[in-house]
Amino acid sequence: MLLNKKVPVAYIINKVKFEFIFVLIISICVLFLTDIFQDILPEMPLTVPAFIGTAISILLSFKLNQSYDRWWEARKVWGSIVNDSRSFVIQLQMLAAKGNETAIRTIAYRQIAWCYCLGQSLRGLNPLDNLEGLLSAEDLAAMKLHNNKSLALLQMHGRDIKELKENNQLDIFSQVQLDSTLVRLCEAQGKAERIKSTVFPVTYRLFLHYIIYLFVITLSISLEDVAGYFEIPLLMVLSMAFFLLEKSATHMQDPFENRPTDTAMTAIARTIEINIRQLLKETDVPAPHQPEVFYLS
Asked: What is the domain partition of the chain in residue ranges?
């Protein structure tokens, strides 16, 4: 997640470096061809690139809105995970009979592991990273048998809650309360996986990309009477503005791709870990996840 800090110029340039090269080549080629065939080519009025630029602005506005909706939905999903993870541990402490502190601690640690595991899975990384000391050897072995390792951890929660009920450590109403929280956690995982697996229409991005190049070509032809040393920088500035907005929307529409624009899942999972460990009255808690230069992962 980008922070309210100065974004390095290198990061911005890196986002549009290939487009910059393509636009530069296109501008030089069009300038060269219009000089050679200026008697043959019809005059291109400025209203043509102006119309295309207006269309690009409308399309970019729509794409930015849709991309932000996806990013914000992902952030809301992880906000609900924070709330339900805290509630889950508090409910266990309130509803389970005395003498079950070990079982509660096991489930609480497993919930911390679930948060890290889900974040890693959504980013396409190893879901078993950052789980040291949080799971028993038995749970780790059982996890490895599942493709969806986060779901396996939720199943283990359900198993332990069932055992507490069968051992008369929970009454039926307490079990229902814990089950409803577990269902909400499962729903949050499903929502995150839906965002991850639902691809924003690729054709929309490609069409918008090509229309920006068309804008560059038409504007370059319209400015045939302008000196090249002024025309090319002008084309570069205008086109890069469009491409930067288009790239920002493209990155924001996929909030689980291990980019600086991602939802800060690792930082959120660390916050949940700190909260849960303090609920368990532990004093040796980790420090909050520190941001990179300009973003929080």
From this structure: 9-279
